[in-house]
């Protein structure tokens, strides 16, 4: 099992733009692509390997045949042969809809799916860019419903200014939206369940208002004001700096300005590296690949170490 790279799965979005091409070098068919799914085993959108002996194979087929070697024994015990996370880059040329995600219990009951905890790492943002995360005060359910009816929801939401390198954790039930101009990396549970509650009255390509899920969202919403989303983390060079630890993924920030070997022998999990700046040659026991800004690679659980040959690179390291 060598470092696996995958073909990006590009998603057209009415709010998408061209930053995935202009900043991350993606080959886009047009300038309205909102998401690049980097590593996915979501049904109907499974990643395909683009390098080495497994080139052309679907990620799910590789997992089915080599689940413990790829995922790790403990990961297989928890999730079987279902890959538990989804890695994306998101380019919001326009504001995204105001939305939230259900927790595991509700998602299982309604959709036979996992819920969706997620984190964001901001890669590019203009001055005065912002994210919507949570309410600006604790809200009662009736007050929230009144804001929807009177079209005043934006008045009770919390706006967070952002810049490159900012990190956020979005818990289930937390109302949120990515603001116009923001390019970010998203790490989330493998789930595509979203409850959209407001969409700025925009119309889709068929000149129709997009579906809202206001009633379903009521049971999933966290109405409390909680400052539990902006993550402060160390950015010390040539070491691993913890950003987020949760039951579904652990994410570290690594800024290297010299060659480095990382010991994976005690980690019973796959490891994903997302390059957010620079480049490096990534080596394991069996093979090496070039990893550049905007690219992602997966190191299988059976690998005991990974080396980076680089003059400078910034990475998000994701594992379970």
Topology:
Layout lengths: L3 E2 L3 E9 L1 H4 L10 E7 L1 E2 L2 E2 L12 H13 L1 H7 L5 E8 L5 E3 L3 H8 L6 E7 L5 E6 L5 H9 L7 E5 L5 E4 L5 E3 L3 E8 L5 E4 L15 H5 L11 E2 L8 E7 L2 E8 L3 E4 L7 E13 L4 E5 L3 E4 L5 E15 L1
Concise description?
This protein has 320 residues and is mostly beta strands. The chain contains 6 helices and 22 strands.
- Average pLDDT, all residues: 95
The percent range for strand residues is 35-45%
Net shape: globular
Quote the CATH topology of the largest domain. Jelly Rolls
Count of DSSP helices? Answer: 6
Distance from N terminus to C terminus (CA atoms, Å) equals: 18 Å
Number of domains: 2
Biggest beta-sheet profile = 8 strands, antiparallel
Task: Quickly give the structural class.
Answer: mainly beta
In the CATH hierarchy, what is the architecture of the largest domain at level 2? Sandwich
Q: By CATH's scheme, which homologous superfamily of the largest domain applies? A: Jelly Rolls
Under the CATH scheme, which class of the largest domain? Answer: Mainly Beta
Give the number of DSSP strands: 22
Q: What is the H-and-E element order?
A: EEHEEEHHEEHEEHEEEEEHEEEEEEEE
Rg, nearest Å: 20 Å
Low-confidence stretches: none
Q: Helicity level, as a percent range?
A: 10-25%
């Amino acid at each position: 099992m060598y470092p696996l790279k995958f073909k990006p799965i590009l998603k057209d979005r009415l709010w998408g733009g061209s930053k995935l091409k202009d900043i991350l070098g993606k080959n886009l068919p047009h300038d309205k692509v909102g998401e690049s799914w980097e590593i996915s085993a979501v049904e109907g959108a499974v990643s395909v390997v683009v390098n080495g002996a497994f080139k052309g194979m679907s990620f799910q087929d590789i997992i089915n045949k080599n689940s413990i070697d790829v995922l790790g024994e403990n990961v297989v015990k928890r999730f079987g042969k279902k890959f538990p996370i989804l890695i994306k880059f998101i380019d919001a040329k326009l504001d995204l809809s105001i939305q939230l995600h259900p927790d595991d219990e509700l998602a299982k009951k309604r959709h036979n799916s996992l819920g969706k905890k997620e984190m964001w790492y901001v890669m590019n943002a203009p001055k005065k860019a912002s994210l919507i995360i949570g309410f600006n005060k604790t809200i009662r359910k009736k007050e929230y419903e009144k804001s929807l009816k009177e079209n005043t929801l934006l008045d009770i939401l919390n706006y967070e200014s952002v810049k490159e390198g900012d990190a956020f954790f979005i818990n289930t039930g937390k109302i949120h939206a990515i603001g116009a101009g923001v390019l970010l990396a998203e790490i989330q549970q493998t789930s595509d369940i979203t409850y959209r509650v407001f969409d700025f009255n925009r119309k889709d390509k068929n000149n129709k208002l997009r579906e809202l899920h206001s009633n379903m969202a009521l049971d999933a919403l966290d109405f409390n004001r909680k400052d539990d989303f902006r993550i402060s983390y160390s950015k010390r060079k040539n070491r691993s700096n913890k950003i987020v630890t949760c039951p579904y993924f652990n994410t570290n920030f690594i800024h290297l300005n010299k060659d480095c070997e990382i010991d994976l022998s005690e980690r019973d999990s796959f490891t994903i590296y997302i390059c957010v700046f620079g480049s490096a040659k990534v080596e394991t026991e069996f093979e090496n690949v070039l990893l550049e800004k905007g690219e992602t690679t997966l190191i299988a659980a059976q690998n005991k170490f990974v080396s980076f040959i680089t003059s400078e690179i910034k990475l998000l390291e994701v594992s379970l």
